[in-house]
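Our working data are protein records whose layout never changes between entries. The record below serves as our worked example for the rest of this section:
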Amino acid sequence: AVGRALAYDARPNETVESMLTAESAPERPAGDVVADNTPLGEWRATRQQHDDQHQRQHLSACRLILTPTSLVERDAETFALRAAWRLSEVRAIVRNATEVQMLAIVMNDPSAPIGVYLLARRD
């Protein structure tokens, strides 16, 4: 299927015409991770975060979106950007051997936390 994605930032005095003009403009910031927002795949997920200080597990609904150049995490309800990584920053996406709906995102930077997600569906 061929489609077009439109990213929208809530800005005062923004019009539909100016958003469409900005979206179709070929100039994009060179370092912008989410500039190429053509989705190749999107998955509803639940992110697991561990709070070491309080020894608690936090769960939050999100969407994982794969584009040609990046992996993006957005809030499931508001679609607000939570995180974005260039694919070159991702070392591996690892599926859990026993929990088929669980996966981990491992970054090249060893100090970066491993993101753990539960997918609504296996694939």
